[in-house]
Amino acid sequence: MNNNSNLKKGSLVCVSTGMQLGAHISPISQSHIENADIVFAVMADGIMQKWVESMNPNVFNMQQFYQKGKPRSDTYEEMMQTMLSEMRKGKNVVGAFYGHAGVFVTPSHKAIAIAKAEGYYAHMEPGISAEDCLFADCGINPGQLGCANYEATQLVFYQRNIDACGYLILWQANIVGDRTLIKRATNRKYRQLLVDVLSEHYPLEHEVILYEAPTLAIDSPRVESITLGDFINAPLKPHTTLVLPPSKPLRRNADIFEQYEQLEANVVQLELVK
Ligand SMILES: C[S@@+](CC[C@H](N)C(=O)[O-])C[C@H]1O[C@@H](n2cnc3c(N)ncnc32)[C@H](O)[C@@H]1O
């Protein structure tokens, strides 16, 4: 794990356990969990937590850092400091995160950056995120028309260039509009802010998808089509991701097409001269 003699004793590896219990984890992530001195886990539910606990006798559940009235930024800081503090004692620490450990996860990225800056061995093992499941379950190929990902609240409060010719995937839709980082769900007034922003680019009748990946093999995904206008009252869960399929066709870049045609004509002329 740590062959560089200049590195300090102790390491941090943040691994991804995937979305589905037992089915998505990579052999290398599993091996890191099994061989760690201590594992700090953030799992999607209690069953997943128990599954991680079955792989190593020393697993600490970091979900307990989330508390009513406590800003999520404080929770992330606590998770990060907890992992780093054990690493600084010389232990081989694993942070196990459901889905992909680096997709919409703050403490993993920050802790790895700090560990490296302090001279410890640290890295992240990639994995299967909610978006990977979404591509499979919703039949979306991001290469066909392009695809952008945003945290829903950030999209509301900052001016971004929304491209309605491609797919738009919005994470943390159930807390959209919460700038306090405290709320566990927001109501229709906050959701209206998102609909207002989106309705500049999509009609209210545009069909959008509420997506939930199953965490157990026996469950089915939620792939529910509703109109953008209906999003205001839609039943959302903390793990619901909102997908907006394109509402506009691709538009040709006429200037580039013209340049391309000249380029091709020049190539033909050169071929003829040869
Ligand atoms: C803190 S992020 C964690 C994402 C996770 N690391 C991943 O790789 O997918 C939480 C957000 O991920 C999305 N998410 C989490 N679980 C999901 C699921 N089962 N189905 C669909 N989206 C999910 C939702 O947008 C949710 O608000």
TrEMBL record:
It comes from the Bacteria. Keywords: Methyltransferase, Transferase. CDD domains: OphMA_like. InterPro entries: 4pyrrol_Mease, 4pyrrol_Methylase_sf, 4pyrrole_Mease_sub1. SUPFAM superfamilies: Tetrapyrrole methylase. Signal peptide: none annotated. GO terms for biological process: methylation. Residues 12-215 form the Tetrapyrrole methylase domain. The keyword Transmembrane does not apply. GO terms for molecular function: methyltransferase activity. This is SAM-dependent methyltransferase. It comes from Thalassotalea fonticola.
